Amino acid sequence: MGKGTLLYAQSGGVTAVINATAGAVIQAARGRKVKVLAARNGILGALREDLVDTSRESAAAIRALAHTPGGAFGSCRFKLKSLDQDQDKYQRLLDVLDAHDVRWFLYNGGNDSADTALKLSEMARVTGYPLTCIGVPKTVDNDLVVTDTCPGFGSAAKYTAVSVAEAALDVAAMADTSTKVFVYEVMGRHAGWLAAAGGLAGVGKDDAPQVILFPEIAYDEAKFLARVQAVVKKVGWCVVVVSEGIRHADGRFVADAGGGKDAFGHSQLGGVGPLLAATVKDKLGLKVHWTVPDYLQRSARHIASATDLAQAQAVGKAAVDYALAGKNGVMPVIVRTSSKPYRWKIAPAPLADIANREKTMPKVFIDRSGFGITAACRAYLQPLIKGEAPPPYRADGLPDYVRLKNLPVARKLPAWKG
Amino acid sequence: MGKGTLLYAQSGGVTAVINATAGAVIQAARGRKVKVLAARNGILGALREDLVDTSRESAAAIRALAHTPGGAFGSCRFKLKSLDQDQDKYQRLLDVLDAHDVRWFLYNGGNDSADTALKLSEMARVTGYPLTCIGVPKTVDNDLVVTDTCPGFGSAAKYTAVSVAEAALDVAAMADTSTKVFVYEVMGRHAGWLAAAGGLAGVGKDDAPQVILFPEIAYDEAKFLARVQAVVKKVGWCVVVVSEGIRHADGRFVADAGGGKDAFGHSQLGGVGPLLAATVKDKLGLKVHWTVPDYLQRSARHIASATDLAQAQAVGKAAVDYALAGKNGVMPVIVRTSSKPYRWKIAPAPLADIANREKTMPKVFIDRSGFGITAACRAYLQPLIKGEAPPPYRADGLPDYVRLKNLPVARKLPAWKG
Question: Residue B142 has what DSSP assignment?
Answer without folding.
Answer: -
